[in-house]
Amino acid sequence: MAALWRLSVLCGAREGRGEGSRRFSAQPPAGERDAVRIRLLGALFLRTPVVRPALVSAFLQDRPAQGWCGTQHIHLSPSHHSGSKAASLHWTGERVVSVLLLGLIPAAYLNPCSAMDYSLAATLTLHSHWGIGQVVTDYVHGDAVQKAAKTGLLVLSAFTFAGLCYFNYHDVGICKAVAMLWKL
User: What stretch or stretches form a coiled coil here (predicted)?
Assistant: First the structure.
């Protein structure tokens, strides 16, 4: 109950009433019990594992909030490469490929040629490989199963790239194939 009362003080239940001397009493006055009961729901939600203000969390636990920035950080999936240069470059590479696709798709529509076909084959395969790889990392548990899933993904990506290159070389190519589909 004392934690709830401290929460109501922190949330400003009595701000602007001029009752500063009663603000830190052990029990709330009879007229404010309803306000404390309403704040009980807030306290229950603040105790759940969601983003919550670090100052409120520290205040409820009688600890100072060091380096308070407004929220607590939540890490949803474990990072195997935490802080490594390779992970940072991989993340940057994913973003570069995504932005490259934003420009490459309209360019391929405006200028369909074999260079665009092979560029699309490479970037689409790489983009889908990295995207499905993140799904495998997040949702496949167990080292052996995850390693098998990633190996299968690598084989699938290699066959996808080889198939797209074969289609570009022996058939009309990706750009003209999409244009033919749009004409239907």
Answer: none
Measured from the Cβ of residue 15, the count of other Cβ atoms closer than 10 Å reads: 11
Q: What is the pTM of this model?
A: 0.54
Distances (CA, A) of 165 to 25, 114, 145: 75, 10, 30
d(CA 128, CA 17): 59
166 labeled part of a ligand binding site: no
Distances (CA, A) of 126 to 119, 152, 153: 11, 15, 11
Please say whether the structural domain 88-182 has been given the CATH code 1.20.1300.10.
Answer: yes
Is 118 labeled as ligand-binding? no
Q: Which residues contact 178 (CB under 8 A, 6 or more apart)?
A: 109
Burial of residue 150 (number of CB atoms within 10 Å: 0-12, 13-18, 19+): middle
